[in-house]
Amino acid sequence: MALLIGRAVSSRAQPALILSAGLLLTSLASFANPLDHELGRAEVRVFTAPFSLADAVASGQTVEGTALVGRLEQLGYRRVRGRRPSVEGEFFWGNERFWIFRRGHFRTARWQPALLLEVMVGSSGRLIAVKDERGRQVAAARAELEPLLIAETLRPGRAARLPVVFEQLPEVVWRTVVASEDARFFDHGGVDSRSLARAVLANARKRGVAQGGSTITQQLIKHRELTPRRTVGRKISEALRALALETEVDKSDILENYLNSVYYGHIEGVEIYGLGAAARAYFSKQASELTLAESALLAGLIQSPNRLSPVRNPQSALKRRHYVLDRLRELGWAEPADLEAIRARTTVRLRISKPTAMASAHLLAAIRFEGGDLVERKLERGRGLVVETHLDPWLQQIAAEQLQRAPSRAKNRNLEGAFVAGNVRSGEIVAYVGSTQTSRQGELDRARRALRQPGSTVKPLVVLEALERCGRNDPLTLATLVADEPLTIELASGPWSPRNSDLRSRGVVDVRRTLMESLNQPTVRLARHCGFQATADRFAELGLASSDPEQPAFVLGAVEVSPRQLLSVYARLAGVKRPKDPRALIAKVLAPDGAVEFDSRDRRSRLRRVPSTSLRFLIRDALEGAASSAGIGVNGAWGKTGTSSDRRDAWFAGGFGDFVAVVWLGTDDGHNGALTGALSGARNAAPIFGAWMDAASAQAGAASTGTDREAQRGLVRRTIDAETGLVLKQPRAGSRQEWFVKGSVPPKRRWWRPGATAPVIQ
């Protein structure tokens, strides 16, 4: 490489740069590689998880169930008809075949080449095999769609880039940038001796770094490789890397990368990087549609994007545009008449399209929190990193869209919320949304930090204690009868009289109905029967340690919990034999060169003190009815609504297969129900859960199938009289099937005891 650099310098008539040979040789090992396939040392990338076609085939998923077309369109693929895809980013969908020309992409900070994949489609749209263009089976590691790039920073408020292709840009567009920033770009070998000489003289006069003299190539190197500190050492490194880069990469590629990475200021707090995003933000058009006047204005911004902003300082922007036009005249790169016509315009004509942040501040805050000191140190030092998350891009998008619709559904634009979903088999977070507001730039991660009362979502824990231990009493069953009448409990603070939410009493109900209909009076009676201390201990055992037995309202949800905490609680009810705590949002943190600096597999652990499979099965079986009553249309989904006592918080928590998910809606300042629109878990939170789980169910797996069979070996099923709670020989009006732990079946109904009933918990 040293020889190549020498040739590049001499062939382009560069002077002998006064750089020591030792410094040159020791620096070459870390020089930039070809731009398309490498990350710079100062660059940040955040990716979702890739979608595994191999896993979809293995689990018998369908084209529709995997949302394969939607996933491809989300990645920017284009559907072609009547032919096999011929270029990267195209796909063809036929009756028996699904061709995908997968793009080359980064995976674990390494470049994965493009690959033409043939996905065989069987009956009912089921995916049955993944092959390459020669018909050979593709290894599972290669049979996947590329991860979605969701951020190029971990600081909030950067707009998504809209990449431009140099060959598709009119010359007038890129010539303005070259004229403004580096007129001899096509003549030098990475370092411009004339500009460098001027800079050296200026710096000598100022006795410091007052002027850079940087070429476009050097500026690109600085953006991708180096910290922004203005030091002599950095300038030397910049020059060396620029010389090396120009021996490996064409000028057009360097200019294209520069145009896609340069900073163009910010609009309403959202930073704009790249010519494509700037054209959209300032003029509401594509970069290829820019006029000479518009191109000159944007080219002028590069020197000082915020000081020269046409939004905040239009006259300064106009003056800088005139400078660019003058440079075009001096270089003979534009017609004088055209330049004069533009100079005659005394105003800057903008057509602003407000940019949106590439990733929400709330998600970036969650990633930074989980990354801890490692990530913060990298950011503080201006060093790059790659963050690979476990997020499923399609399910993440659906969660965000559903949550964003919540304020309009509730007719309250101040309504906030959070959604978090995880895989209990792997311990991974697959969807994470910390706000209903995508435009808000605050970093409050409500999924982790919104501590609110969860209402009736805690009632399954009361029932779980009753079924398994029930304090010093014998364990109860789902058929146990409980009085549903008003009650008053004397506390140190005074009498407490809990009531059902509809203020009605039903006389006597069983435990299953108590849970399904979320009845308060019988729930409190169950907890009192088993002991408030025993119930509080159960709450603490499952992750809700703030329960106070002296204040029994905790059994109705008078505790504070975050959505992410509640997710861990509900993970303990899932149908996986040994569930993991779904806390891993980050899969890996890597240096830009691919070195692994953090791997979440080292920290994932199974949940402790998980109830037996039989007891979890009983709770989920009852919660399937609760989910159905709340309007969840996914067969087999289970869950529970929650509404705080003053109706200021609405919840839904539940699961299906491998997945558990939690939805919370409320306000940041905790306004009461009258101001938040009288929220309810069933009306406000359940539809979000249902829509998301409907999309996720095809990928949720059949986690409970084998576990349920094992659980049922410890259970028996009997026909009971719902009114008396006694076992019947034959089904009859008013009877139903119920599961019981072996040895806990209630007595049979006898003809000679017509008025007999099972005991009623008072």
* Distance separating the two termini: 86 Å
What is the CATH topology of the domain at 2-30 and 158-343? Penicillin binding protein transpeptidase fold
Gyration radius over CA: 32 Å
Spatially, the strands of the biggest sheet line up as 11-1-14-21-22
Can you summarize the main beta sheet?
A: 5 strands, mixed
Q: Report the β-strand fraction as a percent range.
A: 15-25%
Shape: elongated
**Number of separate strands:** 29
Helix percent band: 25-40%
Overall average pLDDT: 87
Task: Assign the CATH architecture of the domain at 2-30 and 158-343.
Answer: Orthogonal Bundle
Fourth-level CATH superfamily of the domain at 2-30 and 158-343: Biosynthetic peptidoglycan transglycosylase-like
Q: Can you tell me the CATH class of the domain at 2-30 and 158-343?
A: Mainly Alpha
Structural class: alpha+beta
Contiguous helical run count = 25
Q: Spans with pLDDT under 50 lasting ≥5 residues?
A: 1-34
